[in-house]
Amino acid sequence: MNDATPETPPAAARPGTERKLPKRFYANADAAPAGDGLFRIELDGRAVRTPGRNLVAVASPVLAEALAQEWRAQAEVIDPVTMPMTRLVNSALDGVAGAMEEVGAEIVRYAGSDLLCYRVEAPEPLVALHAELWDPLLDWARARFGATFMLSEGVVHVAQPPRTLDLIASALPDDPLRLAALNLLTTLSGSAILALAVAHGRLSAEEAWRAAHADEEVQERLWGTDSEALERRTRRYRDFEAAARFFTLLAA
């Protein structure tokens, strides 16, 4: 067969076990035309497929080159943790492509309890930071999509207007790659508004990540940094930034 389907180990091992990674088995990784305006990834000339046996092929040559670069960057072993864009493409082709409605509904559910809608009474620095980072984005969502969000104090749930949720649903991408990227941005940030702001170029990945972690920023100002929490956040940001890059690369 003229394809290469290396086993993709889980991103993290089970507790108490050591993650075993496959050895690098190829010399070259390249992006190449696949026909029909698509570009595939080749390892020593053999096409890469997803764990679900789908051909890894995308419509953007720039994105294809970014995927090939992740394969080139592997050293003695292939570590999926260091390949966030490849993992996202695999997820889009193997999962999201066959469940577009369900994935879209998940994003809309996040909009129904969006992080940006839940405010606090204290401390004052956090109240101020929420207003500084979040209020302009709610204004943007209203101007861009016509979606008006209701705010709540504390953790008391506030139901969003059905029209708002319908407008967010109508703003979702209609292709698996962008929808997968938007879904990842949403779940990692807790906010469909932040995810859409990144997708539409209103925010950079770094700006959105800061907005999503306003609470942590103030806590660290007041009490100092938790090194373990910071490390976990850094790992999650790698995936967040990769999902944000999708929109730039697909538009190139």
From TrEMBL:
Transit peptide in keyword set: yes
Keywords: Chaperone, Transit peptide
Cited Gene3D superfamilies: ATP12 ATPase, ATP12-like
Species of provenance: Ancylobacter dichloromethanicus
Region of interest (Disordered), ranges: 1-20
UniProt entry tagged with the keyword Transcription regulation: no
GO biological processes: proton-transporting ATP synthase complex assembly
InterPro entries membership: ATP12_ATP_synth-F1-assembly, ATP12_ATP_synth-F1-assembly_N, ATP12_ortho_dom_sf
Protein name as annotated: ATPase
Compositionally biased residues, Low complexity: 1-15
Family to which this protein belongs: Belongs to the ATP12 family.
